Automatic annotation (TrEMBL):
One of its GO terms (molecular function) is DNA-binding transcription factor activity. This is Transcriptional regulator, LysR family. Belongs to the LysR transcriptional regulatory family. Residues 1-58 form the HTH lysR-type domain. Keywords: DNA-binding, Transcription, Transcription regulation. It comes from Alkaliphilus oremlandii (strain OhILAs). Pfam families: HTH_1, LysR_substrate. Gene3D superfamilies: 3.40.190.290, Winged helix-like DNA-binding domain superfamily/Winged helix DNA-binding domain. SUPFAM superfamilies: Periplasmic binding protein-like II, Winged helix' DNA-binding domain. PANTHER family: HTH-TYPE TRANSCRIPTIONAL REGULATOR, HTH-TYPE TRANSCRIPTIONAL REGULATOR CYSL.
Length: 290
């Protein structure tokens, strides 16, 4: 049984004639008769009484017609409003912390100005967690810093930012010129957790020098690390954009390290098989232009 059968049945009931229904539907009379027979065969009931070469909707048919009318109205409403349903579908966004702080809010404001009927839901976490949620279809779109290894994911780089090593003005490195990385790792290190893009970039850079570290502090909260550095409890590695004001005001000092540049690349990420709605594509373009 298909929608086609139900539509033909409804017109036959309205016209009370196979011939008139065929004319209205621009079909042949045998095609209409065949559709009604197929419907009755499928339902295993007779919907019409056939008397003296005429058809009469029987009591079963009348009850069936009521349901068919309701169903067709719902179906036609669904067809007409499917675009509206797409616009009303929530876009689930996962973002790593730095992007959520400095890029995502303005992008969401611009998007919601253009697509007022499309809700967004944002989850902020470290890059590893966000990537995992994307793989399990718990979010639709991810904004992740650092390297993404999963080949099933589409990655679109859209911006980058430098990472800096920072210390307190009271620290011995505050007054020194460029420091060797081997000197840095002898100090107390206050770092982001493994799985965060910031930590991954730092660890990868150390690996190029055959170095690994065991930090004294590990935190998911960058502000906690900043406060600890201000108290001269050690050295940290954080996005420059996050500590620019403290460096400018003299509360923190950027440590210059010889031959050790840290840059984090930001990516828009989604699964290669993800269906992209019009609003989804628009959001991607907005973020790309930030």
């Amino acid at each position: 049984m298909k929608i086609r059968h139900l539509r033909i049945f409804k017109v036959v009931c309205e016209e009370e004639s196979i011939t008139k229904a065929a004319e209205k539907l621009f079909m042949t009379q045998p095609a209409v008769s065949n559709a009604i027979s197929e419907l009755e065969d499928h339902l295993k009931v007779c919907l019409f009484d056939r008397i003296s070469r005429r058809i009469y909707l029987n009591e079963t048919g009348k009850l069936f017609l009521k349901k068919v009318i309701t169903l067709l109205e719902l179906y036609e409403d669904l067809e007409k409003n499917v675009k509206e349903l797409e616009e009303n579908a929530t876009i689930r966004i996962g973002s790593s912390i730095t992007i959520a702080n400095f890029i995502l809010p303005k992008s969401i404001v611009e998007f919601e100005t253009m697509y007022k009927n499309t809700p967004t839901k944002v989850i902020v976490g470290n890059a590893g967690k966000i990537e995992e949620m994307l793989e399990h279809n718990e979010i639709d779109l991810a904004l992740i810093e650092g390297v993404i290894y999963n080949e099933e994911l589409i990655k679109i780089p859209f911006s980058s930012y430098p990472l800096v090593m920072i210390c307190s003005p009271k620290h011995k490195f505050a007054q020194q010129g460029p420091i060797d990385i081997n000197q840095v790792i002898q100090e107390r290190l206050l770092l982001r957790e493994k799985g965060s893009a910031i930590r991954d970039v730092f660890d990868s850079a150390l690996l190029l020098h055959n170095i690994s570290v065991n930090p004294n502090w590990t935190s998911t909260n960058s502000q906690a690390l900043i406060q600890a550095v201000k108290q001269n409890l050690g050295i940290s590695v954080l996005p420059k954009i996050l500590v620019a004001e403290e460096i400018a005001s003299g509360q923190l000092v950027e440590i210059k390290v010889k031959d050790f540049e840290l840059v984090n690349m930001n990516h828009i990420v989604f699964h290669k098989d993800k269906f992209q709605t019009t609003s989804f594509k628009a959001l991607v373009e907005i973020i790309k232009n930030k």
